[in-house]
Amino acid sequence: MDPYTPRTRPGARKKNITLSAKEYTKITGTIASVRRNRHFNDDIDEDLDGPVHTVRGSRRSSQEPSFIAETSFVRAPLNSRVGTTSFSPKNKGKGKEDLLDHLPLDVQEALILEDLLFVLMGIEGVHITYHPDYSPEDDDPLQGIRFAIASPLDPSIRDLAERVLPLATYYTAISAFVESRSHLEFGLVNHALCAAIRDMLKEYQTLLSQLEHAFNTSPLFTLQKLWFYVHPTVHTLSLIYKLVLELATMDDDDGSSISSASSDPEQAARDEALGLGGAKLKAVLSEITKSSTSAAIPVKGGEVLTAIYERMQGMSGDPTARKVYGTLMSAAGAPYVEMLREWATTGRLHDPYEELCVKESKFISKGILEVDYTDEYWERRYTLRDGSTLSSKQQHAGVPLPRTPGGRLPGGACIPPMLEGWKHKVLLSGKYLNVIRECGIEVQSIQPRRDQEQFSMDDEKLYKFVEDAYTHANRTLLRLLLQDQQLVPRLRSLKRYFFLSQASFLTHLLDLAHTELKKPAKSASIVKLQSLLDLSLSSEDASFREDVKVTMANTGLYEWLLKVISVSGIIGGEGGEGNHDTAATEEPKKDRDKDKDEKKALLAIDALALDYTVKFPLSLVISRKTILRYQLLFRFLLHLKHVEQSLASMWIEQKTTPWRQPVPNHPEFEQWRLRVTLLRTRMLSFIQQILAFVTFEVLEPNWRSLEVKLSKVTTVDQLLRDHVDFLDTCLKECMLTSAKLLRAYSRLIVTCSTFALYSSSFTKSANQALAAAEAGDGDQAMNKRWEFLKKFESNFNHWFQFHLDCVQYYASSENVTLLPLVVRLSGIKTL
């Protein structure tokens, strides 16, 4: 049984309230007989004075013609009272007080009953009027109209009447809320909530019409019976009233805080002092403030559902509250669930009023993937309105400010508590399907009979639906990437080209482009280098070789890495120990490095890099961020290969006669040749050990681990994370994320490459020494040769020892994978 309508008689209530002619005649006759029975008898007329007769007579004369003159009023009796009360003069003052004070109890009860039927519809009565503190013009209609009994009554009648009066306040406030929140800008959730409340108010109005019918037809209808019938409705409407009052208060508090902040006199004086006092400038600033604050966001979408859910949970011990709020939650959540269903099953986001937890940035298109290194399409095209991401350290920008009263995010940014744990799956399920749609593939729905699967916000089926949609979207996109787009063969080709797993093409390229790579980077021809790369790849059975392109970097590898680590600390994550101690000395060093870079142009061999072009949706996995990591590792390996090749050429050159011919009469020269050969051997051994460690103990094991993960991957985001983690691990274990290791290693590489550049100079010095030994005149330049060689030896020994100490420290504290490198480098130290 509904708490809104009493069952006064058995049988179903007729829905059609249109009166026939027979019923019309019967009702008018009944009303006339009731009014005759309630006229004053002769005894009462003798006790009452003249003014009372005048008042009652005028009231009768003002009411009776309304039933005769207008037939439509008879069909709706409450409407007749609207006209009557609005045009009849209100009796204020002592006359009216005396009227009710001296009347019998049944007459007082009848008059109060008649006024209560006015008031319960929000219409001011004769004896029950607006509260003295209430003003229809000034007070907020969402707070409801307050009524008060203006005349003294019998205490029992007054007590019962005052119990009923809050019902009028609830009804008027709820009606005002429904009227105000039905506008377009309040969104679909508010519209659905207002429709559900409107249905409840229809039952309330039906109850009032039945009560009025009982009042007009039954002489036995009393105030006690009225209270008996409306008592359940008082509690029901009080629950709705508290909800609408909370929703209305959120807007009011937020708006008042903004308006008070904008009218702050101190802020105005400060603006005036800063020259911001102009009228036009103030208008512009106010527009910016309005657009950037959450005051402009009404209470809608997820915020409304959160308010209903929190009230339902807070009053879960009250069956009526749980039923009422549960009904409102189901009705208000229906459009929210429909938007969520469409997003999760088709990848289309239809949210015209920004109520859903998912936000779309329409200005970001998939074309950005080709040029943007931040991959905005995947990360920022569709995001959660609350700014949260799967990584707790990151948060998207553009999140509105929380509301002042309770810290709740406004509008759609407030995610309903029942979806808080599922919000990332909701986002990703639609994201995955959207990628498939962008590829021109029609998305198959997981629910062919969707219309038969209806559920509400507080239904457990919602969670199963989100889980099923997430699983379906994952499988569909994974199948597209792994099978249709051949992701794994693509990654293997990246390993071949960037990690030099089959490096014969690189050796061929370095030989062909030897002269071109000696030029400055700005002078080298990229077109020529690209043709030479294509030529070197044509001799091999290389897949996807047409996607490999030659490019030139703007800065050196180690300078760029050190700059990134020192500025952001993201790559290295180094603490303050290494960076803060040398902060004061690094600034002049940076200035000197800039001067050196300006004087000495970057060579093409140092700027050479490869690029890899892929199309959407593979660009989500092989993105610009991941290609940047591949390029860093490639340039690192390329430098090692180039220096190794240079030192090997030096070894070949040192097998010629000037280095092999014995000179017994010049032992100092033989000692010098031995030291040069030993230093070259140590440098070559160092480069080869680093290269072997990087390829066999870092890249290859991590690649095998990635292949295992790819064979077991179940979600697309897990695939993306595994790929990025693989590259980050390789960068870390290759010592490219530590400022100390990178600085020591770069100095060692520069020393080795510079030493290899002086190969012909050493050979020339050896020829000169041989000629001097054969002439027997004595070698005057031997001291200069020793001095020149000792500079290389001291420099290499110093940075080698520093690098070895750093590797030992990091191997024992942070990176255990560096332990094999410690063993390898310790063997070089003993040479």
From TrEMBL:
User: GO terms for CC?
Assistant: gamma-tubulin complex; microtubule; mitotic spindle pole body; spindle pole
List residues of the Gamma tubulin complex component protein N-terminal domain. 113-483
Where, subcellularly, is it found?
Cytoplasm, Cytoskeleton, Microtubule organizing center
All residue ranges annotated as the Gamma tubulin complex component C-terminal domain in the record: 487-825
- Which molecular function terms from Gene Ontology are attached? gamma-tubulin binding; microtubule minus-end binding
Question: Which residues lie within the region annotated Disordered?
Answer: 576-596
* Residue spans of biased composition, Basic and acidic residues class: 586-596
Q: Which domain of life is it from?
A: Eukaryota
Q: Which GO terms describe its biological process?
A: cytoplasmic microtubule organization; meiotic cell cycle; microtubule nucleation; mitotic cell cycle; spindle assembly
Where is it chiefly localized? cytoplasm
Give the matching InterPro entries.
Answer: GCP, GCP_C, GCP_C_sf, GCP_N
Q: Which keywords describe this protein according to UniProt?
A: Cytoplasm, Cytoskeleton, Microtubule
Query: A Pfam family name for this chain?
Result: GCP_C_terminal
Which Gene3D superfamilies did the record assign? Gamma-tubulin complex, C-terminal domain (1.20.120.1900)
Family from the record: Belongs to the TUBGCP family.
- Return the PANTHER family for the record: GAMMA TUBULIN COMPLEX PROTEIN, GAMMA-TUBULIN COMPLEX COMPONENT 2
- Indicate what this protein is called per its UniProt record: Spindle pole body component
Q: What is the protein's species of origin?
A: Pisolithus tinctorius Marx 270
